[in-house]
Amino acid sequence: MLSEERYSAIIDFLNKRKAVTVTELAELLDTSESTIRRDLNALGEMGKLNKVHGGATAIESRINSVDEDFESKALKNIEEKKAIARYAASLVNDSDVVFIDAGTTTQTLIDYLDTKIKAVFVTNGIVHAKKLIQKGLKAYIIGGQLKLSTQAVIGAEAINSLGKYNFTKCFLGANGVSADSGFTTPDLEEALVKKEAANRSYMSYVLADHSKFKLVSAITFLELSRACVITDKLTDNKFRELTVVKEVSI
C-alpha cells in the first residue's frame, strides 16, 4: 500500500473513531508499527491529526462561519435544551442581577423561571425580553443594532449599554465548545457582547448541549476556564480538566 493510501485510510478511520492506537492501525493496514508511527508523524506535521503517545486523535471540526437563523436552531435538540434550561433557571435567586444572552437554549431558560422571583434580568435577545415581561419579571433590554437572523441586539452601542451593569450571573449561548479554541460563535459582534457580559459577571454559565462540543466557530469569545458549562451529556471527559461541567438528565 502506498503512503498516500495509508494516509487516507488513517484519516478515514480517525474520522469514525476519533482516536486510534498504533497497534490498531498496524493491524488494520497490515503493516508494521514503525511504518504507522512514521505515517502519524507525517500527518501530524501536516496538521491532519493530533499525534499522542501510542497513537493519534482526530483534529476538532473545521472552523464554521455559518450562522443559522433563530428558527432553525430552535428545532434542534429540544429535549436537551429543556433539561439544560430547567437546571440553569434553578440557579437564579431573588437577589440576582442576571444577563441572559440571545439564543434558543437561553430563551428556553425563561420558561422555567418562577414568576414570583425578584431577580433583575437584562438581555440582548428580542424574544427573550418579550417573554420576560410577559411573565411579569423585571427586565431590561440593551440598546444597539438589531440582528434579524438571531434576533439579537449587537454592536458598539450594545457594548456601551452593558457598561452600566454589574451582573451576579450571566447565561450565554455558544455555537462551539472546544478544548483548543474555547467558547466560539460565528459573528464577531455577537462574540463581543457575550465577552463583555461575562467580564461584567461574577459567575458565567454557558448553556451548550452535547452537539456543540468539539465544534469550532470563527470567533472565540471566552476561554473554557472562564465559565461553567451546563450540558445534557459530556462525551469527552477531558473537558472536566479544563472547566467546571454540570451534566443534567433529560
Based on the model shown, name its key terms.
3-stranded antiparallel beta sheet, alpha/beta, 7-stranded parallel beta sheet, Rossmann fold, 250 residues, 2 domains, 9 helices, Arc Repressor Mutant, subunit A
Protein model, in words:
The chain is of the alpha/beta class. It folds into two domains: 3-58, Arc Repressor Mutant, subunit A (Orthogonal Bundle), CATH 1.10.10; 64-247, 3-Layer(aba) Sandwich (Rossmann fold), CATH 3.40.50.1360. It has nine helices and 17 strands. It has helices at 3-17, 22-29, 33-45, 70-74, 78-90, 104-111, 126-134, 156-162, 188-199; strands at residues 19-21, 49-52, 55-58, 63-64, 97-100, 120-123, 138-141, 145-147, 152-154, 167-173, 176-178, 182-185, 201-207, 216-217, 219-222, 228-231, 245-247. It has a seven-stranded parallel β-sheet with strand order 7-6-5-10-13-16-17, with helices on both faces. Strands 1-3-2 form a three-stranded antiparallel β-sheet. Helix 2 crosses helix 3, helix 6 (104-111) packs parallel to helix 7 (126-134) and helix 8 (156-162) runs parallel beside helix 9 (188-199). The chain starts with a helix and ends with a strand.
